Amino acid sequence: MIQPHGNTSLNPLYISDEIERESLINESQQLKSILLSSMAAANAVMLGGGYFTPLSGYMNLSDSLSVSQSLKTDDGLFWPIPIINLVDDVSNISCGESIALRDPNLEGNPVLAVMNVKSIESVSDADMSLMLENIFGTVDKNHPGVASFSNQGRFLISGPIKVLNFSYFPIDFPDTFKTAYEIRNEIEILGWDKVVAFQTRNPMHRAHEELCRMAISDLSADGCLIHMLLGKLKSGDIPANVRDASIRKMVEIYFPPNTVMVTGYGFDMLYAGPREALLHAIFRQNCGCSHLIVGRDHAGVGDYYGAFDAQTIFDTVPDGALKIDIYRADHTAFSKKLNKVVMMKDAQDHSKDDFVLLSGTKVREMLGNGIAPPPEFSRPEVAEILMDYYKNL
Amino acid sequence: MIQPHGNTSLNPLYISDEIERESLINESQQLKSILLSSMAAANAVMLGGGYFTPLSGYMNLSDSLSVSQSLKTDDGLFWPIPIINLVDDVSNISCGESIALRDPNLEGNPVLAVMNVKSIESVSDADMSLMLENIFGTVDKNHPGVASFSNQGRFLISGPIKVLNFSYFPIDFPDTFKTAYEIRNEIEILGWDKVVAFQTRNPMHRAHEELCRMAISDLSADGCLIHMLLGKLKSGDIPANVRDASIRKMVEIYFPPNTVMVTGYGFDMLYAGPREALLHAIFRQNCGCSHLIVGRDHAGVGDYYGAFDAQTIFDTVPDGALKIDIYRADHTAFSKKLNKVVMMKDAQDHSKDDFVLLSGTKVREMLGNGIAPPPEFSRPEVAEILMDYYKNL
User: Does B117 touch chain A (CB under 8 A)?
Assistant: First the structure.
């Protein structure tokens, strides 16, 4: 199987030994603590599950600036987005001590992880702008990722962490939330070698379903990992539980058994486009995938990124820095001429009218009014779940 | 006049405005405080006097490691030795706050400077070894600089400082201690353009006196800055006040008026050889000197460095990184053949017996017994001051 990123084995920071974990949980009650931002909590969950192998905790400012500017840590590890813990008050925290990191997303803010504080650094306006400009391509606060990233506070606490649980993800998504080591193990058990990952934060319509089928076929892959984001989204996006149900239904009915794995990971959406695509590739490599589907405006939002920026950025990755490859996709849509879903770039002789196309707004309006989109656009079983959701909004 | 290092003007961190300084002194009484190491205190005094222009305070770990390994800060400024504040307890200090830095060298530990804490970082054994190995060429604790540097504690506090006084230096050396801006001003008033600096931590015997005369003559310099270290030395070295008196006497009698300026700076000796020679050059450039005399084993100790390492390191300085030049010297000694002091490398036809040579041990023994060394070795007026010192030991 494909090696994890920058390491021969996966490095999950979750304390899996029950006795050690229990004792650490007890100890953590006596420690000074800080309340994490949702972004820092998501980083802890990803680190815990081995997704961010080979990192051992939160980056310091030097690594963060280096990652932002040069896509590598000071030690030369290829990495596209700072994995950091930004807080707005460090007055009760000392360098060198162990502190408890409390979960902002669970009632009572239980301890999510224990951290050994290696450094505490203040982030200047210039440092923050440099990071935002490089990661998101903008400092515009209307960008949802920029807003979340820059609202976390201006003190950066770095150091190794030990993760005690996976926050709300295993509670809210008991069947879907998986760690990278669970996925890696399942892939090993299934004996898959070539595995293509499909990233999604949306329900899957026909176009997405067929895109996975195309990728499996074009790559002669053994299977496909549908890997959905379970963390926070911008307002207006369909919640993860609805999306999860609709995807599971689609896979159950329309894919042969044991060709698709439906799973999810606990991370908030950054909408960082090209940089986030690189991060997506890294953590799918850590899951044991050989390929990642990267489509039009992957992980984008608004018109901040060019349509294929998230693909072309892979052309700039230094040789050998990533072991995973990408499968470059364009939008897919049902062709009335050919009576099947095709990739638009492969249908140069088509005009717009030759496709079954519906705008996002139009689809939401139809579903909200209890009208199923045509089956060439949405599987009826998927449409039904989404209509239920919109009806109860 | 020669420009300061990395800046168009000198950047002394001493608060010269009396009202502002008084108000800051009052405020500092309310601040949390830490007791500085002698090395960190010496850094503050040098920063206060403008010697370490263009630095604005203590470096962070990233700059310190970069300076150690690559002789430049993360911003690309040429710099040979980390200017840092290492402490062993940071439990009462928070990132982002202002703290008072207390002076370890004055009774009652008054506040020397106020610091805005930008980062607090723990320094690992690996980081410390990397710094020592690069700065001193060794991690051997028998090296006096290594011992001082590594005994300061393992938490690095970085950030800008405002300096409130110059510690014990103006008290103990009212005529000799000078800031870089005072020296620069005096040079400007004298109208000197070409100025050669002589670094010393020892009394000056005939050989050193003639070396200054040779440098002035060879360079057609307008004057010479005899610039002595007034801070801490290893045990056995002659104290600064005795050295100061003997040097002043020598200059008074044996140099024409207004050709030599006798001054001192408040810094502890590092014995870092080549790296310290580079630092010596930087802060003499900041004083307005165009040249620095670099002799055999400059700033060395024991046999840690090669005889001319402190000269050849200047061949590796990137073009334009330093504006000051060095005057390369060998040992000088009185030649019985030529009846004058010569540089040994210029007297290849001489055998050892053609010179008046005395070992350091022999000279100390003679002075201790009230015997003046021959006038070819020491000016009688200098010998007298040194005999007085040894008599009272």
Answer: yes
Selected catalytic residue, list B21, B201, B213, B248: B201
What value does the mean pLDDT take over residues B48-53? Answer: 98
- Whether the full predicted model's pTM is greater than 0.90, yes or no, is no
Are residues B95 and A120, on separate chains, in Cβ contact within 8 Å?
Answer: yes
CA distance B30 to chain A (A): 16
| Chain B residues with CB-CB distance to A154 below 8 A | 96
Over residues A260-296, the pLDDT tens digits come to 999 999 999 999 999 999 999 999 999 999 999 999 9
Residue B354, C-beta contacts closer than 8 angstroms, at least 6 positions apart? B335, B336, B337, B347
Question: Does A96 lie at the interface with B, CB-CB under 8 angstroms?
Answer: yes
Q: State whether ipTM is beyond 0.85.
A: no
User: What is the predicted pLDDT for the residue at A91?
Assistant: 86
Strand partners, B161: B115
